[in-house]
C-alpha cells in the first residue's frame, strides 16, 4: 500500500512545522512553569487562547475530522491526517492549540456521526469553534472498564427524562471550567443482548446531581489544566432528546469513537519513539 503524501498534505505539514517552530517550541518552558504552579490549577496560560486564534486563522484547525464529515471537515482522509498528528504531537500540550485533542476530538466525531441536528447545533458547533470543552465518561471504578459492556451506571427513563445514577472515574477534562458537556455511557436496557444494553447520553456538566468526588493523579501529577475526575451521579435528570442515536447504541458508539482514537494515539507514539 502506498503512503505517498499529496501536495496539499505536504504543504499543510510544512505550515504546521513552521507554527510549531515559531509558537510552540519556544513556549515549552513557560508551559511547564505555569502548570507546576498550584495557583494555576485547571487554567491555561494567558497566551494559550491567542495561539488557538492564530492556528484557527491559519486554517490549522479541526484537522482531525476526516472528510466524510463534510461540511465540518477540512477535507483530509485518515491517512492524510496521520503525518499532521505526528508533527503536532511532538509537544504534548500542542494538540489543543489546533482543536485536535482528546477527548474533544472523539466527542466531536461522535456528534458529527450520530448526533441529531439539534444536538449538533447545541454542542458540536461550539466545540468545533473551540468555544467550549467536553468530556467522555465511560470508565467506572468497580468494573474492568477495558470491556465497555461492563459499565453499570444506570440510565432509567422517567417520562420525558432519563435519570442517571452511578459513578465514573478517569473522566478527562471534566474538572476544567470550560467543560460544558459530557457524553456519559451507562446501562439503559439490561434485558437486551450484551452489546445492546448500553446507551450514550449528553449530560451538561452543570446538571444538578453531579458531584466532583476528587481529581485523580497520574504518576503523582494532577494533569492540569486537563485533569481526570472521579464523578458521582445521583438522580441526574436530562431530557430524552439528549440520547445519542438511540437506546442500546452505547457500545456501538464507544467502538466507533475508539477506532479513530487509537489510530491517532498510534501517530502520537510514532513521533515520540
Ligand atoms: C490519563 C488517563 C485518561 C483517561 N481518560 C478517560 C476518559 O476521558 N474517559 C474514560 O471513560 N476513561 C478514561 N480513562 C480510563 C481508561 O479508558 C481505562 O483505564 C481503560 O479503559 C482500562 O480500564 P480499567 O482501568 O478499568 O482497567 P481494567 O479493565 O481493570 O484492566 C486492568 C488490566 O487488566 C487487563 N484485563 C482487563 N480485562 C481482562 C480480561 N478479560 N482478560 C485479560 N486481561 C484483562 C487489562 O488489559 C489491564 O492490563 C483514562 C485513563 C487514563 C490513565
Q: Give the oligomeric state of the chains in this entry, treating copies of one chain as homo and distinct chains as hetero.
A: single chain
Tell me, briefly, the overall form.
globular
Total of helices: 7
Number of strands: 7
Number of domains: 2
Largest sheet: 4 strands, antiparallel
Rg measurement, Å: 19 Å
In this entry the ligands are: flavin-adenine dinucleotide
CATH level-two architecture of the largest domain: Orthogonal Bundle
CATH superfamily of the largest domain: Acyl-CoA dehydrogenase/oxidase, N-terminal domain
Straight-line N-to-C gap: 23 Å
CATH class of the largest domain: Mainly Alpha
Helix content range of the residues, please? 25-40%
Secondary-structure content class: alpha+beta
Short description:
With 273 residues, this protein is of the alpha+beta class. It folds into 2 domains: 142 residues, Orthogonal Bundle (Butyryl-Coa Dehydrogenase, subunit A, domain 1); 122 residues, Butyryl-CoA Dehydrogenase, subunit A, domain 2. The protein contains 7 helices and 7 strands, in the order H-H-H-H-H-H-E-E-E-E-E-E-E-H.
